[in-house]
């Protein structure tokens, strides 16, 4: 009944410009709001309420003897924003996330393009290989890379066969980036591959028939149409990499801190919950600002290239 009322109002407004300003009664939207109420209540309970509690906790004061004390002050924010230690942690966090995103784009986009050119059964087999790491726990994969990159690991043993090494690969930024690329690569391949499925192959063939080189066809025809997939994939990879905890914690060690491990140390090590909540909230805000800025920039460039 509500949908019929909305359709009738839309048809009436479209047929007569004078009636376009007529507002649909709020009762027409009531069934839709009632249907969405359980999902919104669940979302509020699991996301909005904990986020609001974390925000309130950032203003608390910490006393080593008694723990968090209710207050309204900005000392935690000043401590994080002015401390060179935390500034280095945030720069390292977003630097690792940016490098991981660039590597995933450089590896995942060509991989998705090759995957789109395959035919069954090879395409199904390679798609299974790409998605298989998602079936394994992140902790297990991190321990696997720890065994590979350790001083006595397989990688250093291979270098030893040619008279090189051993190199310090574990507990470095290199180890964190390599493991994150391995974990995040499916989140880049799948969106790009999905965008390539919507690409009409005849447009690529038409460009080649007009004497365009394969490189020009890829740059002028294919790339602009797969940019939405690259955009969505890079946003997912960057957000997940910036907030990753298990891999930096296991492969970065105690000295190579990122924002997520710093939050863990404050909550469970120092028991300074207000400072940990402040770091977590600043990480969330900075992550959102960077991702929205990147989205706007790429969206405008993509819109201009598509005309």
Description:
This protein has 307 residues and is mostly helical. It has helices spanning 2-15, 30-57, 75-82, 84-117, 122-131, 138-149, 154-161, 173-197, 201-209, 214-242, 246-251, 259-269, 273-305, and strands at 61-63, 67-69. A two-stranded antiparallel sheet has the order 1-2. Strand 1 and strand 2 form a beta hairpin. It is globular, with a radius of gyration of 25 Å. The model is unreliable at 12-20 (pLDDT under 50).
SSE topology sketch:
Elements: H1 2-15, H2 30-57, E1 61-63, E2 67-69, H3 75-82, H4 84-117, H5 122-131, H6 138-149, H7 154-161, H8 173-197, H9 201-209, H10 214-242, H11 246-251, H12 259-269, H13 273-305
Antiparallel strand pairs: 1-2
Summary tags:
about 300 residues; mainly alpha; two-stranded antiparallel sheet; about 0% strand
Summarize the structure.
By secondary structure, the protein is mainly α. It is built from 13 helices and two strands, in the order ααββααααααααααα. The relative contact order is 0.11.
Order of helices and strands: HHEEHHHHHHHHHHH
Largest sheet: 2 strands, antiparallel
Number of helices: 13
Q: Could you give the order of strands across the largest sheet? A: 1-2
Helix content class: over 70%
Which radius of gyration do the C-alpha atoms yield?
25 Å
Distance between the termini: 41 Å
| Mean pLDDT rating | 83
Query: Which range does the strand content fall in?
Result: under 5%
Derived from helix and strand composition plus strand pairing, the structural class reads mainly alpha
Shape: globular
Query: Which parts are unreliable, with pLDDT below 50 for 5 consecutive residues or more?
Result: 12-20
What is the tally of beta strands?
A: 2
């Amino acid at each position: 009944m509500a949908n019929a009322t909305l359709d009738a109002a839309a048809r009436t407004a479209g047929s007569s410009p004078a009636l376009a300003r007529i507002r649909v009664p709020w009762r027409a939207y009531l069934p839709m709001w009632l249907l969405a109420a359980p999902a919104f209540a669940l979302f509020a309970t699991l996301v909005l309420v904990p986020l609001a509690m974390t925000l309130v906790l950032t203003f608390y004061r910490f006393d080593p003897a008694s723990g968090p004390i209710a207050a309204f002050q900005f000392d935690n924010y000043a401590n994080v924003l002015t401390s060179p230690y935390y500034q280095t942690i945030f720069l390292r966090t977003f630097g690792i996330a940016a490098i991981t995103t660039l590597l995933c784009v450089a590896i995942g986009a060509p991989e998705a393009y090759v995957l789109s050119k395959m035919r069954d059964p090879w395409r199904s087999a390679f798609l299974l290989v790409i998605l298989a790491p998602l079936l394994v726990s992140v902790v297990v994969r991190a321990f696997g890379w720890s065994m590979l990159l350790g001083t006595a690991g397989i990688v250093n043993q291979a270098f030893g066969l040619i008279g090189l090494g051993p190199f310090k690969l574990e507990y470095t930024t290199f180890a964190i980036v390599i493991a994150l690329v391995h974990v995040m690569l499916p989140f880049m391949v799948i969106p790009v591959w999905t965008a390539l499925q919507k690409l009409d192959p005849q447009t690529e063939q038409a460009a080649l028939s007009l004497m365009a080189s394969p490189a020009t066809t890829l740059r002028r025809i294919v790339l602009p149409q797969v940019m939405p997939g690259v955009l969505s994939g890079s946003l997912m990879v960057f957000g997940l990499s910036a907030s990753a905890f298990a891999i930096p914690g296991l492969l970065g060690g105690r000295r190579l801190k990122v924002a997520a491990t710093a939050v863990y140390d404050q909550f469970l090590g120092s028991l300074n919950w207000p400072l940990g909540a402040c770091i977590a909230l600043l990480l969330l805000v900075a992550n959102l600002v960077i991702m929205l800025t990147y989205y706007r920039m790429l969206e405008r460039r993509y819109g201009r290239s598509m005309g």
